[in-house]
Design a protein that fits this description.
This protein has one domain. The longest helix is centred in the last third of the chain and has 27 residues. It is an alpha/beta fold and about 400 residues long.
Length: about 400
């Protein structure tokens, strides 16, 4: 593996970005006890936290992205919302944002069964780089809860030695089949727009020209958000998990396991398959300015607990264009457990929530904001089962 390829491989030569398959939050990929945790939403987030941890990751995490500005994905009264300074593609990159006010975040949703309550805190990303968060209400709920219910997700655990044997097959997984470049796979009009945006946000990245449109879209989104001073909001999650650990809550995972027996064949098929992902890059380019313009406003709506504003979040078009391109790939035709992982992880979360509501006076849970509002999401499923759900004021 060349040094350039090593830099492009999301975790020391192994992780190719994250296929986020359910509804977790900021960190693109988590690792616990040597397992890969594939979180659910489909956010495009930074993985720098992964580089600082020991290399104990599974060999298969078919990377991708998708959705909320590619990061709807996690995180007041007080200072007014800071505006994101953005420009047209041909103008200089936007200035960075500096928001230093401490924000409490939204209130919590209450799922009730008698006098038992499941408290759900909604997460959001991206966030302005210097936004800080603290909620005494959340801290108090965690302190007095008996159990923490983690977001839906998936795990893959091929084992260390099998992981090592798969490393060679991961090289080049981001590239277009048959050595094609973006100018070969994109319509002329799309490539012209791509060239303009690339000159603005990725002027020194020549390697991206050889990558699939879906990965080019990922790189473009990350670069644009970095220029705008937006980050993934992992600090909020880290703070929450520290509170949970300090309170010694029982921690319940809702992850489902993904099979890795055919990992080598899956990677091979993925590398040679056509994803029909030009629409993913096209949609990303079309909504990039809107995404940057609205990202800080949405983050501040989250920070101030503006539920009405948060309900306006809608990433269905981009999610379908990007995540749909992957899930409809022929590479997954022989892996039904990969294709239906979202439904399986949701079912497991719902079952775990019902069990917690029956057993505990108070349970604390984390879900992404879009899953909370999703009419087909896990909260809607609990309402359909007859549970009483109260939104924050």
């Amino acid at each position: 593996m060349t040094r350039a390829e090593a830099r492009r491989a999301p975790v020391p030569g192994l992780l190719i970005r994250t296929l986020r398959l359910a509804y977790a939050f900021e960190s693109p990929c988590d690792r616990r006890d040597g397992r890969l945790i594939i979180g659910a939403r489909f956010w495009l987030l930074s993985q720098q936290d992964l580089f600082m941890r020991p290399l104990v990751v599974p060999a298969l995490c078919l990377s991708l992205l998708a959705a909320p500005g590619w990061a709807q994905s996690l995180d007041g009264a007080g200072a007014p919302p800071a505006a994101v300074v953005t420009t047209d593609a041909v103008e200089p990159a936007p200035e960075q944002i500096h928001v230093v006010a401490q924000r409490p975040g939204p209130g919590m949703w209450k799922v009730k069964k008698g006098d038992h309550v499941l408290w759900v805190f909604g997460t959001y990303a991206p966030l302005p780089k210097n936004m800080t968060w603290r909620s005494q209400q959340v801290e108090n709920v965690i302190k007095h809860s008996q159990e923490y219910l983690a977001p839906p997700g998936a795990t893959a655990k091929p084992g260390f030695f099998r992981m090592v044997t798969l490393l060679p097959s991961l090289i080049g997984v981001r590239k277009n089949p048959d050595g094609a470049q973006l100018r070969d796979v994109l319509p002329q009009e799309d490539y012209a727009q791509w060239s303009t945006l690339k000159a603005t946000y990725l002027p020194e990245n020549s390697d991206v020209e050889r990558e699939r449109p879906i990965f080019a879209a990922q790189a473009l989104t990350e670069a644009a958000r970095k220029e705008a001073g937006l980050v993934n909001g992992y600090a909020v999650r880290k703070q929450l998990l520290a509170l949970i650990k300090k309170s010694e809550l029982k921690q319940t995972s809702t992850e489902v396991e993904l099979p890795t027996d055919n990992a080598r064949a899956l990677i091979k098929n993925f590398k040679k398959s056509n994803l029909a992902d030009a629409a993913c890059l096209r949609t990303t380019m079309a909504t990039l300015k809107q995404d940057l313009d609205g990202a800080t406003a949405r983050a501040n709506a989250w920070a101030k607990g503006d539920v009405d504003e948060m309900r306006k979040l809608n990433y269905a078009e981009r999610e379908e264009a990007c995540f749909g391109a992957l899930m409809n790939s022929a590479a997954l035709d022989t892996e039904p457990e990969w294709k239906n992982v979202k439904a399986r992880s949701h079912a497991k979360w719902i079952a775990s929530a019902e069990k917690a509501l029956a057993a505990n006076a108070s349970t604390f849970a984390l879900l992404s904001m879009d899953d909370i509002f999703d009419p087909k999401g896990v909260i809607a499923a609990l309402v359909a089962k007859g549970y009483e759900v109260e939104s924050p004021e």
